[in-house]
Amino acid sequence: MRIAFCSSEMASLAKVGGLADVTESLPKALAGLGEDVWVFLPLYKQIWVERQKDLEDTGVKISICIDGQERTAALWKTSVHGVTVYLVDYREYFYRDHPYGTPEGDYPDNPFRFAFFSRAVLEAIKALGLGIDIIHCNDWETALVPVYQTHLYREDPQLKDVGTIFTIHNLAYQGVFDKEVLPKIGLDWSLFHMEALEYYGNVNYLKGGIVFSHIVSTVSPTYAREIQTERFGYGLDGVLRKRKDRLFGVLNGIDYDEWNPATDPKIYVNYDKERLEAKGENKRRLQEDKGLEPMESPLAGMVGRLVEQKGVDLVHAVVGDMVSMGMQLIVLGAGEKRYHDMLLELQEKYRGMVSINIGYSDELASRIYAGCDLFLMPSRYEPCGLGQMIALRYGTIPVVRATGGLADTITEYNPETGEGNGFVFEAFKPGEFLAALQRAQGVYSYGERWQTLVKRAMECDFSWGASARRYMEIYELAKGLASSG
Ligand code: ADP
Ligand code: GLC
Fold first, then answer.
1. Which of 63, 271, 296, 342 is most deeply packed, by most CB within 10 A?
2. Global pTM?
């Protein structure tokens, strides 16, 4: 099978969150199954700055009319883990400090930037003559690919029979824009109705992906069910229910070569489940580096985008109690300013017990996964979540709310039977979260039981194997649907 994977993030080139990890690790896993796969990504400033020497000009130029102007992109390529990545170079749109915007808000021309990218992917596939069977699109940024395919390339011999799959990594981000955008991105008003792109008087890119792709998927079975309900559907549950026969939940995996405490060069000391003393050394060094008191009691970590989804307010609500219990907290994240301020205040208040690190750092992220005892994900909703899987791999026990992929990967530890791999609470309430933390501390205080739990966590397998094979079945289905018209 020949697969084009298009995305707006990729871990070693430009990462904001979990989509970047998936874009890097799923194509690698598919290539490992013997499939031909190419990744398509915008050529952001960060990639120019950090990877220029690895970039090769393909010589291909792509011209597209967007926002009233003919715009010409160049196509570059590079290789990541042996997978070829094609990069769409259009400086006016992508030579910026961040993929999507600043902490103050999104770039106002995002509707044009990503419409341009989506069309450029289709044009690039044609120009390169890749003979693609499947285009796999991800999130609203590439949701227009199936819309363009069905409207502008219906007769195109290279594109008309290509199967499309659209994966929703987060339904809360839909790409909703003023309707006047529509003619400016090369689409006509015939698409402005309830069964297509129209959404409460605006245009909704993500909805286009749901309606026009052959297959829709999301990143865990529980989230696939949740998004069909009003509570989690963000206004699109009805549209999703209509497509339920073609809607699949496939759990993400993580790359077990990349995330490996035995080899990760970013952590202080490498370890595996037979050398857990070295995990303790990572904790001591992390405490020292971050000005935390050298205590034996549990150190809880959090790494993630600081946005409403992630339950930062719930963490804020329980910190006082955590500190009273003798627990320490270390947070790494970036996102909305109100959460930055909220957390930094805690650091002031609980010096030596709380460390807040605003920003993005792969190194510190690894050190937190390795050095902590507990990993907190009290999310309001969580399509899949990779943090909890990475934490398990590093023997750090997740404390999670039972939602989406967290519910599919973490089960409550049962001290009687020894089963389970974390601590789970149901309602989004500080009291329930705190109770889960107390249960964790209870087990922690039984040293031996805790060691057994840590080993058990490290034995969990959330690598891509099974899920990559599941995607192959779905691609076959999409291909069949595309060729049968
Ligand atoms: P989401 O995609 O919703 O942000 P996930 O748990 O799926 O959440 O994935 C988050 C990924 O991004 C993980 O690999 C996590 O380690 C990483 N990450 C998030 N924030 C940061 C940060 N500030 N610094 C380094 N890595 C981060
Ligand atoms: C999104 C979700 C997260 C998921 C990631 C990768 O950012 O918020 O839960 O793990 O995408 O699919």
1. 271
2. 0.96
Q: Measuring from atom 3 of ligand 2, which residue has the nearest CA?
A: 385
Residue 252 CA, closest ligand 2 atom number: 12
Ligand nearest to the CA of 361: 1
pLDDT at 340: 96
Nearest alpha carbon to residue 244 among 204, 217, 212, 205: 217
Task: Evaluate if residue 485 carries a pLDDT over 90.
Answer: no
- Work out the burial of residue 108: count CB atoms within 10 Å of its CB; fewer than 13 is exposed, 13-18 middle, 19 or more buried: exposed
What's the mean per-residue pLDDT of the chain? 97
Question: Is the model's pLDDT at 104 over the cut of 90?
Answer: no
Residue closest via CA to ligand 2's atom 7 equals: 18
- Encode pLDDT of 237-280 as tens digits: 999 999 999 999 999 999 999 999 999 999 999 999 999 999 99
CA-closest residue to ligand 2 atom 11: 169
Up-side HSE of residue 285: CA atoms within 13 Å toward CB?
A: 17
Q: Which fold, 277-459?
A: Rossmann fold (3.40.50)
CATH of domain 2-253+465-483: 3.40.50.2000
The residues spanned by each domain of the chain are 2-253+465-483, 277-459
CB atoms within 10 A of CB 465: 14
- Decide: helix, strand or coil at residue 283: helix
Token code pair at residue 12: 């070693």
Q: What distance in angstroms lies between residue 277's CA and the mean position of ligand 2's atoms?
A: 32
Which among 254, 259, 264, 386 is the best mutation to test ligand 1's pocket, defined by most ligand atoms within 8 Å of the CB? 386
DSSP secondary structure string for all residues of 362-410 = HHHHHHHHHH-SEEEE--S--SS-SHHHHHHHTT-EEEEES-HHHHHH-
Centre of ligand 1 from the C-alpha of residue 363, in Å: 12
The residue contributing the CA closest to ligand 1 atom 27 is: 304
330 pLDDT above the threshold of 80: yes
